């Protein structure tokens, strides 16, 4: 039953994508099959092979170590508010999200810049880029940006190929935007792992796996929505940062991380406040089914069929749909926080795993503004085109992570891990 459900979901997703394609006759069925096979093979390798699974267990320990290291800094600066010893008898939780979880963003950002300075990240990106070029048949510039997007943000990854952006075909430009929406970045992966540590075992391994397997999904989906009919753009990695020494790299990373930290904190405050205000307004309407109308209920109804196609049992689709709707309309951080608050039994273990993959991406409406502003500044001559592709990139990114969730669900049902 679940196998047929998942296969129907994959077929439905690509049927929908073909229906909204800009050039239906140019869609290559072989490229769809190839992209799916690459995604399935990568998902199997990253979740099944003992050596890789063991390395992910070490990553989990690394996140714990990172959390402890961050706490050493926050407890010194903020005292017990940052995770230090409480100087009085506490009657409730002393965990403060903004001062104990979010600061990890700054630490990871600083470490990422240090990895750039030492040449570690550029080396990794070059190897992954070679793999994408050979397996997905894409140009060097797009391959480099797609490889970097596993670790970097929506604006940082395109910076690596900025000189080539003006020469990108429409299909390549859209594929780059779709990859951005279908993945997250290293600066927030540890944050997600902290939020979901009690929901999904080996969380950081799954989050990293999702970023990897969602790239071929995004590239495949992009080529269905806007097929490539022109010449692919060649190009190599361009170092976007200049550091005088390793301390300069840490300083740059800390500064960038601080901006992200403040943006995430401000975004959470405003978004949650707007949702609360909206729910208050909706509560004035007549009740439906004996319950108050809320944004969460509306999201659940709208996205429930999508989550069913991903392999979630029907009785759990309202809960899963609410999470997917929250992630799409608001953002993935709010959705992950809501997921962590679910009561025992609202989602089964497999459904939780499926939804974690489906939520693990930047595809939301606020991200469109970030992409338009950032990429529009890099190639102002193509800003109008980028604006026109914004909503389509959200659709592509959402379906890419949903496809990843579907495949992981199928592998899990087949007891492959």
Secondary structure layout plus pairing:
Blueprint: H1 2-19, H2 29-48, H3 50-78, H4 97-100, H5 104-118, H6 120-136, H7 140-148, H8 156-159, H9 170-182, H10 186-195, H11 203-225, H12 246-282, H13 295-309, H14 317-329, H15 332-340, H16 349-359, H17 365-378, H18 383-413
Q: What can you see in these coordinates?
A:
This protein has 417 residues and is an all-alpha fold. It has one domain. Helix content is 70%, strand content 0%. The protein has 18 helices and no strands. Helix 2 (29-48) runs antiparallel to helix 11 and helix 5 (104-118) runs antiparallel to helix 10. It is globular. 45% of the residues are buried.
Summarize the structure.
With 417 residues, the chain is mostly helical. 70% of the residues lie in helices and 0% in strands.
Strand content: under 5%
- Let me know the largest β-sheet: none
Could you say how many structural domains there are in total?
Answer: 1
| Cα separation of the termini | 19 Å
**Succession of helices and strands:** HHHHHHHHHHHHHHHHHH
Q: Supply the number of helical segments.
A: 18
**Which shape, going by the Cα principal axes?**
globular
Judged by helices, strands and strand pairing, the structural class is: mainly alpha
- Helical fraction equals over 70%
Radius of gyration: 21 Å
Unreliable parts: none
Number of strands: 0
Mean pLDDT: 87
């Amino acid at each position: 039953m679940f196998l047929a459900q998942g296969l129907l979901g994959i077929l439905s997703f690509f049927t929908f994508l073909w229906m909204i394609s800009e050039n239906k006759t140019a869609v290559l069925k072989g490229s769809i099959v190839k992209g799916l096979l690459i995604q399935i093979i990568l998902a199997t390798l990253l979740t099944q092979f003992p050596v890789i699974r063991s390395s992910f267990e070490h990553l989990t320990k690394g996140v714990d170590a990172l959390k402890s290291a961050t706490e050493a800094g926050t407890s010194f600066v903020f005292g017990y508010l940052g995770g230090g010893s409480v100087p009085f008898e506490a009657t409730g939780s002393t965990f403060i999200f903004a001062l104990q979880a979010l600061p990890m963003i700054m630490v990871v950002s600083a470490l990422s810049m240090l990895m750039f300075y030492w040449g570690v990240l550029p080396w990794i990106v070059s190897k992954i880029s070679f793999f994408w070029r050979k397996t997905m048949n894409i140009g060097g510039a797009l391959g480099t940006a797609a490889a970097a997007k596993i670790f970097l943000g929506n604006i940082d990854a395109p910076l690596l190929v900025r000189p080539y952006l003006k020469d990108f075909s429409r299909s390549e430009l859209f594929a780059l935007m779709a990859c951005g929406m279908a993945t997250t970045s290293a600066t927030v992966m540890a944050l997600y792992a902290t939020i979901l540590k009690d929901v999904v075992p080996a969380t950081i391994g799954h989050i990293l796996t999702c970023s990897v397997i969602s790239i071929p999904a995004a590239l495949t989906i992009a080529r269905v929505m806007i097929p490539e009919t022109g010449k692919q753009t060649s190009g190599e990695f361009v170092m976007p940062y200049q550091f005088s020494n390793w301390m300069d790299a840490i300083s740059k990373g800390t500064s960038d991380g601080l901006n992200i930290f403040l943006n995430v904190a401000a975004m959470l405050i405003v978004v949650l406040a707007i949702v609360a205000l909206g729910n208050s307004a909706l509560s004035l309407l007549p009740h439906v089914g004996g319950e108050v109308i809320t944004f969460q209920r509306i999201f659940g109804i709208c996205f429930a069929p999508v989550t069913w196609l991903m392999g979630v049992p029907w009785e759990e689709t309202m809960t899963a749909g609410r999470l997917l709707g929250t992630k799409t309309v608001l953002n993935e951080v709010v959705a992950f926080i809501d997921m962590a608050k679910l009561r025992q039994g609202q989602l089964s273990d497999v459904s939780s795993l499926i939804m974690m993959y489906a939520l693990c991406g930047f595809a939301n409406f606020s991200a469109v503004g970030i992409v338009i502003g950032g990429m529009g500044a890099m190639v102002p001559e193509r800003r109008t085109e980028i604006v026109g592709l914004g909503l389509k990139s959200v659709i592509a990114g959402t379906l890419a992570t949903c496809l990843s969730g579907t495949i992981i669900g199928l592998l899990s049902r087949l007891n492959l891990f």
